[in-house]
């Protein structure tokens, strides 16, 4: 015991000069101090802390009462200095050069809770960002981005980006091009732009509905938004009627001019296999194996039982008897399993009859080719940019044909080769288009920007290329000849928001068409297809809800119809309707004039308003609405509705020509007689 006490005393004496030196270091710390001396101060505090912990962890000193008396003074001075520095952290943080200096928390003399501290200083960080220049803010994000609260970080990014955007715009209203330049400049400075504020992009597909409906567009496009911008893709929506497109800062119109899939096949190769044509009874060799196994276990079981019964207890010890019983139990279990197996295995089974056959594997290369026009409309600067990009995607397949369904190796063949379904799925799959690729080209060609006062100029840009694509598409098509009937040139197709909804209409002047109100209801702008397969845009200029009529002014020209103007129309005369029933374009159907009817309006139910109608048995179906009803070469009505009762056939109604003429006069439209 005396030796232990002596050792403890020697240990205490060795700590005395260390305690004295540590105390001197703590007392030498002056606070506050310049950040350049913080590392040294931190070293002095760390050394003192380590020494205190080392001494207090020594059980020999504490158990024998040999704790150095000056340790308490060191602890007191250490805690006083540490507390003072910690309490002053906020004041030091506010003065610290956050935009240029190293990480504040990595060099500050005492340990701080970084996340909690920065959360309390969100306002200060945002003010600092607001006054930052050059690389200051990216430096801050690099040093503190992993501990700054997410909300504060988003505010920092947004404020910095807006400040940089103002400088890039030179005091002007920033264009979309300027926004992209600013984003790239921020990224170049090392600033992680995770979201571009105040910039919403709407993608709108404006490809010809005729081409889509008639399979002139063979595959679609997908948009890979690989930039931090808010985007929305509009489908089955008219580009100029959509509220989303109107609210967007930038609208990108996508017009597929060409979209084709080309398959090229190569010399096929034959592969041999076999398939099951039926079954026949045959001897089951597994039955013999099961019976043989049963006999072997039966003999072994008998032998083991005889051996155990022939010995007397004196020959075996207790352990030997236990071991023999255990072996007998194991053999009994094996025997019972063999009995069950032999019982379940039949002697005769149905065996498959195999027949050899060959199937073909055709090497196939399928290529997707597209030419796409895109128009970037910057609503803020009222400019638009248009250009084209080409798409070529190619893939090779090995398609197996003629594999028999009863081939036992069917799954192996399918894993080795492709199926026709796999090819079709790949062909239908949309080709992704990266937003960054589109915008990089846009950014590098500012000279191609064009100003617009109204959307008509943008519409014409789209229409010109759509009509070229339509002309090329129809150059390879076969069709009926309607050139001998000029009435077709006066009739148009009114396209709905998607390629499958439509109505009819006809020219009443060289650039104004007449249709039903219910055909264009809910749309200010519509798309029109002419008889010559060209397309146009139209603006609804007048409607009559009672008569269910509407006038649409379009940016194309056609041949206006002539109207029948006599007071009476002979009953039973032949009438002809031209329209697009059930989507079959420019179809003519024939019937007779049944009667003149003056009935309550059907479009807007009213007990007081009546409308004059032509009753006819001419075939009128969905798609004929708004189209002309002719008596010889003059219009006598607008095909509008029909009875669809189960017990009623061929009872259709067209708005009477007198109602049409009054409607045209109401809006000052000069019509042809």
Mean of residue pLDDT? 84
Number of helices: 22
Helix content: 25-40%
Backbone CA Rg = 45 Å
Number of strands: 22
Q: Give the termini distance in whole angstroms.
A: 133 Å
Q: How does the helix and strand content classify structurally?
A: alpha+beta
Low-confidence stretches: 312-318
Biggest sheet overview: 7 strands, mixed
Percent of residues in beta strands: 25-35%
Q: What coarse outline follows from CA principal-axis ratios?
A: flat
What order do the helices and strands come in, and which of them pair?
Elements: H1 2-27, H2 38-56, H3 59-63, H4 71-87, H5 89-95, H6 104-107, H7 114-120, H8 122-130, H9 136-144, H10 150-169, H11 176-188, E1 200-205, H12 209-213, E2 221-224, E3 230-234, H13 243-247, E4 250-265, E5 269-283, H14 285-310, H15 318-344, E6 348-378, E7 383-401, H16 410-416, H17 420-428, E8 431-434, H18 435-444, E9 450-451, H19 455-474, H20 487-490, E10 491-495, E11 502-507, E12 512-515, H21 517-520, E13 525-529, E14 535-544, E15 549-554, E16 562-563, E17 574-579, E18 587-600, E19 610-616, E20 628-631, E21 634-642, E22 652-656, H22 657-666
Parallel strand pairs: 1-3, 1-4, 2-8, 16-21
Antiparallel strand pairs: 4-6, 5-6, 6-7, 7-9, 10-11, 10-13, 11-12, 12-15, 13-14, 14-15, 17-18, 17-20, 18-19, 19-22, 20-21, 21-22
């Amino acid at each position: 015991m005396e030796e232990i006490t002596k050792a403890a005393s020697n240990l205490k004496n060795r700590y005395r000069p260390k305690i004295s030196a540590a105390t001197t270091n703590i007392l030498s710390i002056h606070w506050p101090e310049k950040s350049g001396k913080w590392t040294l101060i931190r070293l002095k505090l760390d050394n003192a802390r380590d020494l205190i912990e080392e001494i207090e962890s020594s059980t020999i000193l504490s158990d024998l009462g040999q704790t150095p008396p000056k340790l308490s003074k060191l602890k007191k001075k250490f805690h006083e200095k540490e507390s003072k520095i910690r309490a002053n952290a906020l004041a030091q943080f506010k003065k610290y050069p956050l935009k240029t200096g190293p990480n504040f928390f990595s060099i500050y003399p005492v340990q701080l809770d970084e996340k909690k501290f920065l959360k309390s200083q969100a306002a200060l960080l945002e003010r600092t960002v607001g006054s930052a220049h050059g690389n200051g803010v990216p430096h801050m994000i690099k040093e503190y981005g992993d501990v700054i609260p997410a909300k504060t970080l988003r505010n920092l990014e947004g404020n910095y980006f807006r400040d940089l955007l103002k400088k890039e715009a030179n005091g002007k209203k920033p264009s979309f091009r300027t926004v992209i330049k600013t984003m790239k400049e921020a990224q170049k400075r090392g600033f992680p732009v995770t979201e571009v504020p105040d910039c919403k992009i709407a993608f709108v597909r404006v490809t010809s509905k005729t081409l889509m409906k008639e399979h002139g567009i063979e595959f679609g496009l997908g948009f890979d938004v690989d930039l931090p911008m808010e985007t929305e893709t509009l489908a089955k929506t008219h580009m100029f009627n959509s509220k989303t497109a109107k609210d967007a800062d930038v609208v990108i119109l996508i017009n597929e001019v060409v979209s084709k899939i080309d398959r090229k096949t190569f010399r096929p190769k034959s592969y041999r296999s076999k398939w099951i044509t039926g079954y026949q009874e045959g001897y089951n060799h597994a039955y013999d194996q099961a019976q043989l196994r049963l006999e072997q276990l039966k003999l072994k079981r008998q032998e083991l039982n005889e051996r155990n019964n022939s010995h007397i207890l004196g020959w075996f010890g207790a352990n030997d008897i236990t071991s023999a019983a255990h072996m007998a139990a194991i053999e009994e279990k094996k025997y019972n399993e063999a009995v069950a197996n032999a019982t379940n295995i039949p002697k005769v089974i149905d065996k498959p009859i195999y027949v050899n056959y060959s199937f073909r594997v055709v090497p196939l290369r399928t290529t997707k080719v597209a030419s796409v026009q895109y128009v970037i409309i910057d609503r803020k600067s009222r400019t638009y940019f248009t250009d084209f990009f080409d798409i070529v995607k190619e893939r090779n397949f090995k398609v197996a044909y003629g594999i028999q369904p009863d081939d036992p190796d069917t799954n192996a063949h399918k894993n080795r080769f492709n199926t026709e379904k796999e090819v079709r799925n790949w062909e239908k799959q949309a080709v992704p288009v990266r937003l960054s690729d589109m915008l990089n080209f846009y950014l590098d060609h500012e000279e191609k920007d064009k100003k617009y006062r109204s959307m008509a100029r943008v519409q014409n840009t789209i229409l010109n290329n759509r009509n070229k694509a339509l002309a090329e598409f129809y150059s390879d098509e076969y069709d009926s000849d309607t050139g001998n009937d000029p009435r077709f040139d006066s009739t148009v197709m009114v396209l709905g928001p998607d390629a499958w909804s439509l109505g009819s209409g006809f020219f009443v002047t060289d650039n104004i068409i007449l249709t039903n109100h219910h055909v264009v209801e809910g749309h200010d702008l519509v798309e029109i297809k002419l008889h010559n397969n060209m397309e146009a845009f139209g603006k609804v200029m007048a409607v009559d809800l009672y008569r269910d009529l509407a006038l649409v002014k379009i940016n194309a020209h056609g041949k206006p119809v002539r109207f029948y103007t006599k007071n009476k129309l002979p009953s039973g005369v032949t009438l002809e309707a031209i329209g697009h029933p059930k989507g079959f374009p420019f179809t003519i159907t024939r019937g007779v004039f049944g009667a003149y009817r003056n009935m309550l309006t059907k479009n807007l139910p009213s007990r007081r308003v009546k409308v004059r109608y032509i009753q006819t048995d001419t075939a009128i179906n969905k798609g004929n609405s708004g189209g002309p009803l002719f008596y010889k070469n003059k219009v006598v009505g607008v095909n509008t509705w029909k009875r669809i009762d189960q017990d009623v056939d061929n009872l259709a109604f067209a708005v009477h020509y007198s109602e049409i003429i009054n409607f045209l006069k109401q809006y000052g439209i000069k019509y042809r007689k």
